[in-house]
Design goal:
- The complex is a heterodimer of chains A (155) and B (348).
- Chain A has 155 residues and is an all-alpha fold.
- Chain A has one domain: Globins (Globin-like).
- Chain A has 9 helices and no strands.
- Chain B has a single domain, classed as Porin (Beta Barrel), CATH 2.40.160.40.
- In chain B, the strands form 4 sheets. Chain B has a 12-stranded antiparallel barrel with strand order 3-4-5-6-7-8-9-12-13-16-17-18. A two-stranded antiparallel ribbon of chain B has the order 1-2. In chain B, strands 10-11 form a two-stranded antiparallel ribbon.
- The longest helix of chain B is centred in the first third of the chain and has 27 residues.
- Chain B is elongated, with a radius of gyration of 24 Å.
- The interface between A and B is medium-sized, with 29 and 26 residues.
- Bound molecules: protoporphyrin IX containing FE.
- Protoporphyrin IX containing FE binds next to α4, α5, α6 and α7 of chain A.
Chain lengths: 155, 348
């Protein structure tokens, strides 16, 4: 626990350093086989819309007893909302401005199972519904995020 | 005395503890899992395997992920002009890797011409081993299945064309041996092997599945396997037949789609086999009775491939409903069988 806290502050310090010295992204775009349409960012309502979606996502995550305790214990919701907005903007076709850790580094020690990952997927669909993002557009985002299971799901 | 009572109490206590442990583990057992995303386990096929309506998919049935086990039960009712079938089945998915299934089918035929043959053969004492009952022709078939996921991921590897691929086996035991033989089939029990490949294409919200099935079945085994010609020559040639399912998700809980299942031609053009003498032998008899047209109508038509259009709706992870329109072509002596399909799948 203490170790994690210190890694977090170390990360934060590094992050400050990195952003000071220009963005070095810890994560790259996924490349879904069928591609993500160029209109995806607009379909989500631009960067603001994506930010709203991520807020809704965390609202539903924190309501879900199967996973919320992990975020309470190891996460930092405000920071994750900011970083996820950057990440989702990137995978939907926006510029690569992601400043967080790589998906493998961020989730390596969390012991995330497929079941827990799917709980986040359910929250993602709920967030789309809540934000009136059509199901088909929502699936573009799901397609872009799904391959991260390889590194996020470690059990 | 006190010691004994204390001991008894302790026993009771530990028994109670055990009961609560068992009960709570039944409710939240380590092995129990329902973590899959809605509809990604498929529904219940008439073969008991997870998939669409008729076509088994590479997905493992139930809502378990690789973290646990999930079971399900299903009821399916098929209504065609010439026959009705009820399917009752169960299956269990283990760790999103292995699936075991069982389904029993009850089919009732209402073909007046076949019934008439039953009536004739019974009243004329031509024999009672045809499996034809004048008023109530029912068939029963049990299907046992196992499916093993070999490689690939249908849902999560959206950055790769590699589909999820599974190998399955079905053992079908048609209890209506006599009727199946009368209808010209060789065997009433046989196995089938299939290889299925499934992929969800998120950007078009569509699941596509291709299955290759190695089989000699007539109408899925409901009319047995292989064929016997009038002179007693019987064969059971298994062939690879193709099957395709396409399911388009219009919402996270609703899919619409269609299926195609290739069928064989074992019984095409065969007349009913009435104790060795086929219906042609009966023809003169029928002619005398003024029923000359009957022998023609006892010749089996070309077996049609199965087509269906379906809609699946899963309000939650415990129940889903499928309604379908079936286009099954000719079945045995009955031409152009179009009808309806209703199925409900309960997941625990
Ligand atoms: C595709 C799905 C997911 C995406 C895109 C995602 C994205 C992110 C991002 C961008 C971060 C911030 C990394 C950083 O701090 O630099 C993060 C951290 C985190 N994620 Fe995820 N995540 C996903 C799935 C999950 C799941 C399924 C869980 C748990 C059930 C989870 C739990 C966490 C936690 C606890 C942290 C904080 C880790 C830390 O600060 O040490 N994530 N995730």
């Amino acid at each position: 626990m203490t170790i994690r806290k210190s890694t977090l502050s170390l990360c934060a310090a590094l992050l400050a350093l990195c952003s000071a010295s220009g963005a070095i992204a810890g994560e790259t775009k996924t490349k879904p086989i069928m591609g993500i349409p160029a209109s995806s960012v607009a379909a989500f309502g631009g960067v603001d819309g994506i930010h709203n979606w991520v807020e809704s996502l965390f609202y539903y995550i924190m309501l879900d007893n199967r996973i919320n305790y992990i975020f309470k214990e190891f996460g930092n919701v405000d920071r994750q909302i900011a970083l996820n907005t950057q990440l989702e903007h990137m995978v939907l076709g926006g510029p690569n401005e992601y400043q967080g850790a790589s998906m493998s580094a961020a989730h390596a020690d969390l012991g995330i199972t497929m079941t827990k990952f799917n709980a986040v997927v359910e929250a993602a669909y709920n967030a789309c519904e809540r934000n009136n993002i059509p199901y088909y557009n929502c699936n573009d985002l799901i397609a872009a995020l799904a391959p991260f299971t390889r590194v996020i799901v470690t059990r | 005395m006190k010691r004994v009572r204390l001991g008894g109490l302790r026993l009771l206590q530990s028994a109670a503890l055990l009961v609560t442990a068992v009960c709570s583990s039944a409710a939240h057992a380590d092995w129990y899992n329902d973590g899959k995303v809605l509809l990604t386990g498929g529904v219940f096929t008439v073969d008991g395997a997870g998939g669409g309506g008729a076509v088994p998919w590479a997905t493992i049935s139930g809502y378990e992920t690789r973290d646990g086990i999930n079971g399900s039960a299903a009821f399916t009712y098929v209504n065609l002009p010439a026959l009705q079938v009820s399917f009752y089945g169960v299956n269990v998915g283990f760790y999103d890797r292995l699936e075991l299934s069982y389904v029993t089918a009850r089919l009732s035929l209402n073909l007046s011409n076949v019934d008439l043959v039953g009536l004739l053969t019974q009243s004329l004492n031509l024999g009672d081993s045809l499996g034809i009952n004048a008023w109530n022709n029912t068939l029963q078939m049990d299907t046992y299945g196992a499916k093993l996921r070999l490689f690939g991921d249908a849902v999560y590897t959206s950055d790769s064309w590699i589909p999820q691929v599974s190998l399955g086996g079905l053992y079908k035991n048609n209890m209506s041996k006599d009727l199946v033989h009368t209808l010209g089939a060789n065997k009433n029990k046989d196995y089938e092997v299939y290889l299925a490949a499934t992929k969800v294409l998120f950007p078009i919200s569509t699941l596509v599945n291709y299955t290759a099935r190695y089989t000699s079945a007539n109408e899925d085994g409901l009319v047995g396997f292989g064929e016997c010609s009038g002179n007693g020559n019987c064969t059971n040639k298994r062939k690879i037949r193709s099957e395709v399912s396409i399911a388009h998700l219009v919402a996270k809980n609703t899919a619409i789609g269609g299926e195609w299942q290739q069928h064989g031609d074992n019984l095409d053009g065969k007349s009913l086999n009435l104790n060795g003498l086929d219906t042609q032998g009966l023809a003169s008899l029928l002619q005398n009775l003024g029923l000359g047209g009957l022998s023609n109508s006892l010749t089996q038509k070309k077996e049609g491939d199965w087509f269906d259009l379906f809609m699946a709706y899963a309000p939650n992870k415990h129940i889903s409903f499928v309604v379908a329109y079936l286009m099954f072509g000719n079945i045995s002596v009955a031409p152009d069988q179009n009808g309806f399909y209703f199925s409900t799948h309960l997941t625990f």
